[in-house]
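Changelog-adjacent note: as of this version, every example in the card shows the full chain rather than a window. The one below runs 376 residues end to end.
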Amino acid sequence: MRNQSAIVIGAGIVGLATARALSLKGYSVTVIERGEKAVGASIRNFGMVWPVGQPDGVLYNRAMRSKEIWKEVADSTNIWYRESGSLHVAYHEDEMQVLEELFDAFHQNGRPVELMRKKDIIEEFEGVIELGLLGGLYSATEMVVNPRKAIATIPVYLSEYLNVQFIWGKVVNRIEQGKVWMGNETLQADLIMICSGADFETLFPEVFTAIAITKCKLQMLRFNAGNDGMHIGTSLCGGLSLIHYESFKAAASLPQLKARYEKGMPEYLKWGIHVMVSQNDEGELTVGDTHEYGLTHDPFDAAHLNNLVIQYLKQFVHCTNWSLLQSWNGIYSKMSNGDTEVFLEVLPGVYILNGLGGAGMTLSFGLAEEKINEIV
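Full-length structure tokens:
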């Protein structure tokens, strides 16, 4: 009896995670990627695996499972990663109150968190501005990878360890049950998974327009710390991040904090700006980001938005001597009705797995494992 076969469209993190899950279920897997390498949202991010931002239950458990798989893959292929945790800092009393409430909620649910005093933060973490600092919330669950290297290396792992085949530089332009077209070429499989970001807009346009989906453009920057050789030791987050993640709604006073931001920092909320910093294996510091929603975006980066990010960054991180290496934007698909992903069977044996809303690095491995278990 022959092995069942599967085609995965897209070699970003969702596609790679899906290929892994299928192979472990005994499928002969082929991944088709339109580019010569993956260049989409999966390489245009912080590289953060971010359980702290996920609410308790399914999503937090999925994030923690994804982290386990990340480490398994990385350890097998010498992909660099650092279990650096995360630190949210407070410079206002209402921010500190939110952090205290989050500590109580997270600690009660068994999350490894610590409420840190100003003195301890300054002693332990390089780069945090001391003036006005009240304290912070440290979470031990977060991890950083270098996404540009990791997304390029995972296919090597899948090929060598799981015998996944890759077809690069071919565009899938049509799909039927059991068959995909790449121009005049065809490839057959028992199962087809579409994991190519918002590209399914062109493959199944009627499906795309029928569901509550949008796209998000984000702007990001990368810096060198200069002669200081700063090592921040964790992923650093300013107060604005507290109104961005679903899990932080556990804080009862969060609406009051958001109201202050709306009144005093309307431009930041208009563009969905919250400011975070991660550091990769080369010491480079990735900073962002903005969130601009819509189906069509200006392809050009707006300097004033980058400037807003940098101005806020300077309020909590010593970055005066940093030199700008790169700036860019990325676009990902996101559900606009509160759903955390798209998972649809559009034809018999043809599925769309997509729309993780910027949480691909955090959730993809766990999500793919769950959904392939459902299908198989």
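Structural remarks: The two ends are 17 Å apart (CA to CA).
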